[in-house]
Recover the amino acids of this structure.
C-alpha cells in the first residue's frame, strides 16, 4: 500500500572540411588540438555534408550559424535619473514592449530600440554596456537584466519578482526511490504529473488535484516515466528492461516493448520517436507508428545511460552516461555520435537544451564533478563551466526567461535558480532533507516540482502569479484530503 497525501507548508565536401581543419592546426601551433577534438571537427564536416545531400527541393535555404561566445558584464557609468517616473518608464519599455536601452553618443541620453535579429548598423550609437554589438545576441546574455546603470538598478530592483523560499505545497510520496540514475516524475503538457512509487505509477491532475493510479506492476519496479510532447501517451520503463506505452486518458496500456536487457532509467520523446536509455549501455530508437519494436540500437557508452534529451527541434539527441561521457547524436545518423565530450569527471545525468538559443546545451556532473557546463552543440565546443559545489542531479531551462534551474545532491540538497548571463544565482531554495533527484516543470512554466529521497514532492513558485489567483488555488486545494491505495 502506498499513499500520496496532500499537505500544506508555507557546397564543401569532407575533403575541404579536413583541409580547413589542417589550416587551423598549421596556423595555431601553440594550441594543439586533441584527437577527440579532431574527431569532433571531422564529424561536424560529415554532418554538414549529409545535411546538404539530404536537402532536395526547389529552394535553397542557407544555414545561418550563430556565433557562440561568453560575455562578461562590465559596469556602465551611472546616469542621473531625475525621478522614479523615468525608471518606471524604462522598466515598462524593457519588460512590456521588449525594447532594449541604448545610449546616444552625442548627448548621452537614453533611448530604446526593439530587439530584432537583424538591424541596420548605426555608427552614432553604442550599447550602454561596453560590449561589441555583434556579440549582443550571446546565448548566455539575459536581456531582461542586461546592462542597467546603477542608479536605474536601484529603482528597478524594487520591482524584480520575489521568489518564495518555501514550497507552497508538499505531496508525501512513500517509496519514492533514492536512486541517482532514475527519472521518476514528469509533468505533461496537459497539466498532469506522473509519479512512480516503487511498482506503481500515479497521475496527479494539477487543476483538480485528483489522483489516479495508472498501473501496478506485479513482479517489477518502475525506473522511469516520460510524457509524449503533445498527446496523452506516457512511457514507463521498468527494472526488467520493459518499456510500456500507456494512454493516460483511457487508462489503458497501448503497447509493451522488450528490447533492453537491463533496467530502463531514462526516456524522452521527439515527435513520433520514443528514445530510451538503459543499464545495458544501449540507446534504442522507436517509431510509434511502426509495428517493429525499434528501428535502431546505438551502443557507444561504456556504462549505464542515465541522461537522454532531444533538442527542441528534434534534430539532435544528447546522451549522458555513468562513464562520465556526454554524446551528441544526429537524427540523420544513429550509427555513431557526431560529437563526444569527456570533460565531466562523474556521471552525466543532468542534461537540458535551451529553448531560447538554438544548439545551446547544458550538462551537469555527479559527486566527483559538481560542475555545470555549457556547450555549442552545433560546432562541438564547450562554452563555459560553473563549479556548483555539490552533485548536480537535474538541469532545466526556464520557459519564461533566459534562466537555468539546477537541483543538487551531496551535500547541500538545494535547488538553485541561475541567471544565465554570467551564471549568477538568483535564488537558492532549501527544503528537502535528501538529494533532490527529480525535477519537472508545469506546462505554463510558472511552477516546478522536485522529488527527493526524503519521500516528498515539493512545489515551488518560480514565477509567482497574481496574489488573488494563488490564494484561490490554495483555498481549493485545502478542501482536498487526497489518499491513494
Amino acid at each position: 500500500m502506498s499513499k500520496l497525501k496532500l499537505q500544506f507548508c508555507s557546397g564543401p565536401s569532407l575533403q575541404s572540411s579536413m583541409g580547413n581543419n589542417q589550416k587551423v592546426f598549421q596556423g595555431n601551433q601553440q594550441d594543439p588540438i586533441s584527437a577527440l577534438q579532431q574527431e569532433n571537427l571531422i564529424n561536424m564536416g560529415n554532418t554538414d555534408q549529409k545535411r546538404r545531400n539530404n536537402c532536395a527541393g526547389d529552394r535553397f535555404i542557407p544555414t545561418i550559424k550563430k556565433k557562440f561566445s561568453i560575455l562578461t558584464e562590465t559596469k556602465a557609468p551611472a546616469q542621473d535619473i531625475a525621478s522614479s517616473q523615468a525608471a518606471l518608464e524604462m522598466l515598462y519599455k524593457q519588460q512590456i514592449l521588449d525594447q532594449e536601452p541604448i545610449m546616444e553618443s552625442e548627448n548621452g541620453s537614453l533611448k530604446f530600440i526593439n530587439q530584432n535579429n537583424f538591424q541596420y548598423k548605426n555608427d552614432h550609437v553604442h550599447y550602454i554596456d561596453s560590449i561589441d554589438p555583434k556579440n549582443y545576441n550571446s546565448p548566455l546574455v539575459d536581456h531582461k537584466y542586461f546592462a542597467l546603470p546603477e542608479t536605474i538598478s536601484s529603482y528597478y530592483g524594487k520591482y524584480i519578482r520575489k521568489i518564495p523560499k518555501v514550497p507552497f505545497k508538499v505531496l508525501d510520496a512513500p517509496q519514492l526511490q533514492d536512486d541517482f540514475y532514475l527519472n521518476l516524475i514528469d509533468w505533461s503538457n496537459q497539466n498532469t504529473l506522473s509519479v512512480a512509487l516503487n511498482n506503481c505509477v500515479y497521475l496527479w491532475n494539477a487543476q483538480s488535484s485528483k489522483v489516479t493510479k495508472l498501473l501496478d506492476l506485479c513482479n517489477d519496479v518502475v525506473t522511469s516515466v516520460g510524457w509524449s510532447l503533445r498527446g496523452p501517451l506516457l512511457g514507463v520503463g521498468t527494472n526488467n528492461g520493459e518499456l510500456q506505452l500507456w494512454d493516460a486518458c483511457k487508462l489503458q496500456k497501448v503497447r509493451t516493448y522488450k528490447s533492453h536487457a537491463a533496467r530502463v532509467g531514462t526516456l524522452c520523446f521527439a515527435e513520433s520517436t520514443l528514445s530510451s536509455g538503459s543499464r545495458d549501455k544501449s540507446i534504442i530508437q522507436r517509431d510509434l507508428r511502426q509495428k517493429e519494436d525499434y528501428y535502431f540500437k546505438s551502443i557507444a557508452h561504456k556504462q549505464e545511460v542515465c541522461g537522454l534529451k532531444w533538442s527542441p527541434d528534434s534534430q539532435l539527441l544528447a546522451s549522458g552516461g555513468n562513464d562520465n561521457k556526454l554524446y551528441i547524436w544526429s537524427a540523420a545518423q544513429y550509427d555513431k555520435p557526431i560529437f563526444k565530450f569527456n570533460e565531466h569527471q562523474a556521471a552525466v545525468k543532468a542534461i537540458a537544451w535551451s529553448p531560447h538559443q538554438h544548439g545551446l546545451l547544458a550538462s551537469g556532473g555527479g559527486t566527483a564533478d559538481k560542475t555545470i557546463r555549457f556547450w555549442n552543440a552545433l560546432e562541438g565546443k564547450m562554452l563555459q563551466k560553473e563549479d556548483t559545489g555539490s552533485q548536480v542531479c537535474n538541469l532545466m531551462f526556464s520557459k519564461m526567461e533566459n534562466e537555468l534551474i539546477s537541483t543538487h545532491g551531496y551535500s547541500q540538497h538545494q535547488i538553485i535558480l541561475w541567471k544565465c548571463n554570467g551564471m549568477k544565482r538568483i535564488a537558492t531554495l532549501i527544503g528537502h532533507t535528501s538529494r533532490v533527484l527529480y525535477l519537472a516543470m508545469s506546462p505554463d512554466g510558472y511552477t516546478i516540482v522536485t522529488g527527493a529521497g526524503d519521500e516528498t514532492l515539493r512545489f515551488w513558485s518560480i514565477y509567482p502569479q497574481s496574489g488573488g489567483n494563488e490564494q484561490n488555488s490554495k483555498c481549493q486545494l485545502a478542501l482536498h484530503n487526497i489518499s491513494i491505495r
Observations:
- The first strand starts at residue 6 and ends at 7.
